[in-house]
UniProtKB/TrEMBL annotation:
InterPro entries: Di-copper_centre_dom_sf, Tyrosinase/Hemocyanin, Tyrosinase_Cu-bd. The keyword Metal-binding applies. Residues 1-22 form the signal peptide. It comes from the Eukaryota. This is Tyrosinase copper-binding domain-containing protein. Coiled coil: none annotated. It comes from Cladophialophora chaetospira. Pfam families: Tyrosinase. GO terms for molecular function: metal ion binding; oxidoreductase activity. Residues 103-120 form the Tyrosinase copper-binding domain.
Amino acid sequence: MLRSLLSFVALSALISSPLVTAAPARHGVRDWNGWDGGYCTPDKIKTRYDFNSLSPEQRKAYTDAVKCLQSQPSNLDPVQYPAAVNKYMDYAVIHVNRTQYVHLDAFFLTWHRYFLWLYENDLKETCGYCGPFPYWDFALTASDPHAFPIFDGSEYSMSGDGLYNNTGPIALGPTLVIPHGTGGGCVTTGPFANQIAPLKFIDPSNLLTGSLPPGAFDYNDICLMRDLNAYVSQTYTNQAQVIAATHANNASTLEFLLNGVIGSSSLGIHSGAHFSVGGQMNSIHVSAQDPVWYPLHTMIDRVYWSWQINNPEVADQLDGSTGTALNTPPSPVVTLDSVEPDWGYFQLSPIQVKDLISTTGGPFCYQYDSVIA
Ligand SMILES: [Cu+2]
């Protein structure tokens, strides 16, 4: 524990410079079963940047790599998972399969941290992508997501809004109705224009029963949709809320500020960011079909990382909850020694929570360009 805290302190000290010239001290880092013995050293640490801060060419190199992954064959059983039509969709399908175990519970932050890492490495190994793994600073774009490169619909964006299709206010729960955004229909601009998102919508209320609807993995001819919503981003993902999360006193307060209370008007910045994009992103289960899911979740990881740096005394604390969403079905309280739910075929060997706590320990070797302080 002390070791990881020290590395956080060291890490925060060097964050002021985006060019990494030194790295956190790493004494006695455990050898990692299944990885290349890779100790995270100064020459190896990678830095993640805001998508909007990248050059147009860097942004396009990233979306080209995502499209490359979408052109690779699936490794899943096509009978069991017809929606897994390519390797990109394998991630989305595995995410659906694990949704009940890795959301609204104590695995949420670390499971997603490693899921992102697997995806980042696949972009590199399979598609030769060597650029930075970008996050989407949704607090910086909260005033109006359209107004920033990430959603401007150009070839250098993550694609734009959906076509305008006003179906009226959107009920997100018994007590939560949000106004319609500026889209609602298919995404027709940018790198991911006219894509098919074959997994049908799964309502978040399925988390209350812990079951998936019949045909959850069927192939459907459904377009990728968005409904960008500045009301939601201004209300739920603004700078003050993101800063409050990174200064939460403990892990359970952090979890509340991230995820709110499902079905209530307390959204949290994670759910808020999802609903500010709309379309498939309104489903916790199938949202990873939208490529912007990855920069969004990388921002959530940056909030987690910033919280760890800002609160070194509780950096490896878990939120005290169990290993199932809303404890459905009931499961034991998760500890640092608990074994993570798997990542499908991407996982080589069982991984414990404590191995995924530090971004410079276990399998990881990365940092962000800046701490949210
Ligand atoms: Cu998720």
